[in-house]
Amino acid sequence: MERPSVIHKTASDLRLPPNWNNYEGERSVDVWDVARRALQGLPGGGLNIGFEAVDRHAASALRDRTALRFISRSSPAIDLSYGELARQTNRFANMLRGLSVGQGDRLFVLAGRIPELYVAVLGALKNGTVVTPMFSAFGPEPIATRINLGAGQVLVTTDVLYKRKVKQMREQMPTLRHVLLVAEDGGITNEPDTLDWVTLMASAPDAFNTVDTQPDDPALLHFTSGTTGTPKGALHVHGAVVTHFCTGRYALDLHPQDRYWCTADPGWVTGTSYGIIAPLLQGVTSLIDREEFDAERWYSLLEQERISVWYTAPTAIRMLMKSGPELARRHSYPALRFVASVGEPLNPEAVWWGKEVLGLPIHDNWWQTETGGIMIANTPAFDIKPGSMGRPLPGIEACIVEHLEAEGEPPRVRIIDTPDVEGELALKSGWPSMFRAYLNNEARYRKCFAGDLYLTGDLARVDADGYYWFVGRADDVIKSAGHLIGPFEVESVLMEHPAVAEAGVIGKPDPIVGEVVKAFVSLKDGYQPDEALRMDIMAHARKRLGAAVAPKEIAFLPTLPRTRSGKIMRRLLKARELGLPEGDTSTLEGGA
Ligand code: AMP
Q: Is the per-residue pLDDT at 314 higher than 60?
């Protein structure tokens, strides 16, 4: 179906006056400075993420507002107010202090989305301890690899996960001094060589003075999702809170009265920056669903929990689309007023699906582990161009660059001034949440910069209106008969076909044209993978893309391999297609 290329903002899309509406005006302000002044800061002059997110509100009129609302199928909801969260995080910080775990020490968390995870992360931040949340679905190897890479001294996990995944590897994690266990049955644990959460928390004092961390002190260590290789540890600082604060307002349009739901797990940077920190900074109530994806449940939650701002990912949206519009229409979403997505390109079809099924277009935004926060976004302040990631937020300068260096030389780039020319997406360095190191890999870190430009590794183009369009990860781009083909472009067109639920596109080596485009496709419920359908999808792609860019081959798969943060792993599709080693698959969903 042909659709307009712009979704104009209408009054019904904006059910509350947005936090801002003047793009150029806001970009001319020193927004970081304004945000620093809106935050409280520590009595000693420092800045601390945990303090700003929790204690600032606990000492205000928001004290009794629910900060975090945990829900699950098997137990009643747990509501933690800002005041209670302050008390529990103080206790946790005191507990760490009692264990001689201090500023700069490293703490890892391995748990489902249980309240203790959130208390541990925020309490550790208040203690100046550097935090790494891991996906609870990781197997023993990826857990040990990350703890060893990060020289983790403390691990917070559950008794069940410990016995299943950590115990047998304990000897191989020499830096680990303390393992703190939360009993999954709510009781007390007595596992040898471990500590019990309930017992230690019970005797920890309620009052704690946040450690006087400085903006450049390390706060969080996030491992990248590894769509294209071995995960790297990106180190973030407490000053990042300034970006979290600004982007919560500009990109997610959070207002204090919001009921907000971020569907990302804290094992992925989105689940920390926007599943924990940014919503608390705005004093909103966050829903945390402890269950995995379930279309019917998610629609019910949006309705029953009266979610007003929803931040999710293309993979979830595609799964909802796959389950058909009827399911969505069994519910209504009168409270919902803003929907955003991150993690992968959001196909225009998905933006329109939001408008048609939820009543609101979906706002795509772009960032990555290294940037620590949202950099480029579709926001309430301007029209949406479906398929575009939006425009750089206030405080962020982006550009498209071309590389000039010879093989093996340090990066040297030229900014491409002409609109609509593809190149690498770069950001002017210096925004507060920029990562400060790849752990133990200074050379790799340096390779990310050319002068004062941070090179993102993503290919994109910018149009004459300043909207950025994603082309692909530099490593995923396909070179075919002299064309550079971005997988996203092809995948988006495949997604327009009524039978297609998901598509992943790779370049397959070819002696004549270099690479040919091969597509892997999973189908919506009710469609059968047969030759007639294959030909129909192929014809649709040819018509929309032309023969040079359309896939030459289409294979059907029941589902596509994804990372735990929901990104299609094209690298793995390619390795499997070519019979090559699969490389690091620790972040593969359903893998070890
Ligand atoms: P991660 O660090 O795991 O969050 O992955 C970051 C990468 O995900 C980016 O460098 C992009 O390749 C991709 N990504 C994130 N958001 C978007 C988006 N809105 N559109 C296209 N790609 C995205």
A: yes
pLDDT for 486 equals 83
Specify the ligand 1 atom closest to the Cα of 567.
8
Residue 17 amino acid letter: P
Write the class of the CATH domain 478-578.
alpha beta
Q: Max alpha carbon distance in the chain (Å)?
A: 71
**CA 393 – CA 157 distance, rounded (Å):** 37
pLDDT at 230: 65
The span from the CA of 322 to the CA of 460, in Å, is: 28
Q: Where are the domains of the chain?
A: 32-459, 478-578
Which residue, judged by its Cα, is nearest atom 7 of ligand 1? 368
Output the pLDDT for position 374.
98
The top-level CATH class assigned to 32-459 is alpha beta
Q: What's the gap in Å between 344 CA and the centre of ligand 1?
A: 5
Q: Identify the residues whose C-beta falls under 6 Å from ligand 1.
A: 224-225, 269, 342-345, 364-366, 368-369, 389, 456, 458, 470, 473, 565
pTM of the model: 0.91
Nearest one of 75, 498, 465, 98 to 321, comparing CA atoms: 498
Distance (Å) of CA 297 to CA 66, 167, 330: 22, 34, 12
How much distance in Å is there from the Cα of 573 to the middle of ligand 1?
18
Pocket test of ligand 1: the residue of 235, 456, 470 to mutate, having most ligand atoms within 8 Å of its CB, is 470
